[in-house]
Amino acid sequence: MEEKGEFKLFISLIDRANLRKSLSESAIYTCLAPKDEFLNAYFLDELNYNSLDQVPITEVRAYINYHFINGMYYTYDLEKRYTSTENLINKSRVTNYKTRSEGKNIGKNIRIFSPSFFTIQGEDFEFNYQKKGDKSFYIEGVKISTSQCDIGARNGVIHILDSPLFPSLRTDLAISKDPDLSIFSSWIERHSQYVLGEVDEQGNVDTTLYKNFSFGRNLADENTLSTLFAPTDDAIKKYFEPYMDLIDNTLDSVPKHVMYSLIRSSVHANLWYHSDLVRNQPQWNALTGYILFGNPVLESIIGTTPASNSFIYKTNRVMESPEMSSVRSGIMMKYKIYNQWYWMMTNKGLGAGIVDVLFYQHSPKTLLVQSDEIWGSPFAQDMDQIQLEKRLKECRAGIFHFNVLTDGGFKKRFYPTDEGYILFDDNKFFDHTGHSVNLITKSPVWEKPTGSIYEIDGFLNPLDRLDINNTVWKKIQSNSNLSSFKAIVDKALMAGELQLTGFFTYSVFAPSNAALSAAGISPSSLTAEAAKNLINRHIVTNRHLFTDGVFTGQLTNKKGEYLTFSGAWNTFSIQFQNNVAYPIPSSSNVQGSNGVLHVINKVL
Fold first, then answer.
1. What is residue 204's DSSP assignment?
2. Which of 44, 226, 268, 376 is 20 to 30 A from 310 in CA distance terms?
């Protein structure tokens, strides 16, 4: 560089930073040599210093290191590295190089483009730098001189630049400098934290405070490469416009956990050029999980913000997270009303099954929730472990595996939950014990395409599926109208089977004493084999509450014979061949820990 005579200012900065020896002997480098006028363009015009003597030594070192790449890369090497890489995704990745590190200041990532890149991915250069390349060699958006490149030296190679190369900012700083991304930047900074460095082999602690982020990917780490879909201020305002009454009519009041969720859905691993998005439409691995990336997001990209360790695509819509596209979003946004539900979701796994983090294909849900006022004392945080587990099950008894809005709202029927079936009738919900709570809000307080939330005024009792004192056999024993059926079960030696809890569940259609008598069946007259045949004809595997008419059709009993179910409530019937039986209303749909008991008026 000294021999060339065009780099006196750059060499003077190298000497001022005491880097002459290091850059001559410590390693092999590719030098991106800036002419004297380029330094003035950066320090005086861009950073507004009056003279180079005013520039702090830390900025001088950063500038110098940015112009030295680790390793020796002639233009031949740059081209070969790209052309010899097999698939297009990897071709994109090999454009990434690393500048010189010094002590605790690690090098920055920098992109170098060869002529072959412009043949295959020229639109990516134009998209990122808003100008066309001419199939030469470029560093970021800066062209390498075609006549002054590949200048060999003992410890590397020099490429002279045609225009100034300004050091790029890391992701968090780049976002903070973009006026279109001020809200997104403030969200990110709310999740920033500072941590001490590592402990060395001698036990000495690096007391430098390093910036980090609590949402799972350190955008302040030059070694962490990411792709971001950063929503503009207008996009965020548009997204939250329907919810302004929930956030006190100011975006500053967006709940932090909502910010957290939306940030995580906007941050993706690795660097992806625009052509990679168009060509591959990959399953994007956001911090929230895999999502299907398609045209709606591609079409929302309106520009880019340059950064050293990421590609930042500015979007005119928010990349909605799995949580915010599910019914759980209602609890997140209305946490001031349902703070106990939010606490249970984030600390006790109450939200399990509500959100599909893979492809946003959430299973339909209806949530019956209690406001904090109805929740009462103690709050979840103050409950002991036994109370907390009980309350968790009570909450799950109000999560229906069904979105009532798709069925026109609540109607008289049994709704399935993880804690048994819940009957809705006359604006009340009844659990397996007959206990009821009232529906407070006939219209949902929150709705999404896959779910809705309603308020109730109390808690429903969960069904303990391991309770040996609440089995279908116990239900049969306790019903005096089934004494004959009980005796037949005993003769068939099947009591133990109907008492088992765990894997197997049964729906038992038990003929009443009167029904058995009318059929001329006496327990004492049956052989054990005949008794077993009769019992198995009246049992269907799995837990079913048929009488609401939701299911019509055929199921096989334990003998392999088809039973036909049809009608609803007063017209509900079970048919076997020419025999039609009807359930006795007061004694049907009796839920036990291992099944359901239906008392019927006729023997099948």
1. -
2. 44
Distance CA 556, CA 506 (A): 12
Q: What 3-state DSSP class applies to 221?
A: coil
Angle CA 4–10–13, to nearest 5:
140
Distance, CA of 308 to CA of 223 (rounded, Å)? 10
| Residue 481: partners with Cβ closer than 8 Å, 6 or more residues away | 512, 513, 514, 587, 599
Strands 506-511 and 446-448: unpaired
Residue type, 31: C
**Residue 280: enclosing H or E segment and its boundaries?**
helix 274-280
How far apart CA 372 and CA 382 sit, in angstroms, is: 14
Q: Residue written as tokens 């703070």? A: 339
Order of all β-strands in the sheet with 579-581? 553-556, 562-566, 573-576, 579-581
The per-residue pLDDT for range 545-581, each reduced to its tens digit, is 988 988 899 999 999 999 999 999 989 999 999 999 9
Distance in angstroms (rounded) separating the CA atoms of residues 382 and 212: 32
Residue at 76: amino acid letter: Y
Half-sphere exposure of 572 (CA within 13 A, CB side): 21
Q: Which amino acid, one-letter code, is at 603?
A: V
Q: What is the CA radius of gyration of the chain?
A: 35
What number of other Cβ atoms are within 10 A of residue 585's Cβ? 12
Continuous segment of H or E residues that includes residue 508 = strand 506-511
For residue 194, give the DSSP letter.
E
Query: Burial level of 73, CB count in 10 A (0-12/13-18/19+)?
Result: buried
Question: At residue 492, what is the residue type?
Answer: A
**CA distance linking residue 478 with residue 475, whole number of Å:** 5
Q: What phi, psi does 93 have (nearest 5°)?
A: -70, -35
pTM of the shown model = 0.85
What is the C-alpha separation between 455 and 427, in angstroms, rounded? 12
pLDDT digits (tens, 9 = 90+) for 103-128: 878 899 999 999 999 999 999 999 99
| Strand ranges across the sheet with 96-98 | 96-98, 109-113, 138-139, 142-143
Contact call for residues 428 and 440 (beta carbons, < 8 A): no
DSSP class per residue in 510-549: EEPHHHHHHTT--GGGS-HHHHHHHHHHTEEES----TTS
Q: List helix spans (H) across 108-255.
A: 115-129, 171-177, 182-190, 233-240
How far apart CA 602 and CA 391 sit, in angstroms, is 41
Q: What is the DSSP letter of 269?
A: E
Percent of the chain as helix, strand, coil, to the nearest 5: 35, 25, 40
Strands (E), 237-315: 267-269, 283-286, 289-292, 301-306, 310-315
Q: How many CB atoms neighbour CB 53 within 10 A?
A: 7
Tokens of 133: 């390349």
Label residue 553 left, alpha or beta by phi (over 0 means left) and psi (-120 to 50 means alpha). Answer: left
Give the pair of three-digit tokens for residue 59. Answer: 């900025």
| CA–CA distance, 423 with 176 (Å, rounded to integer) | 53
Q: Which residues contact 569 (CB under 8 A, 6 or more apart)?
A: 412, 547, 548, 549
SS3 annotation, 573-602 = EEEECCEEECECHHHCCEEECCEEEEEECC
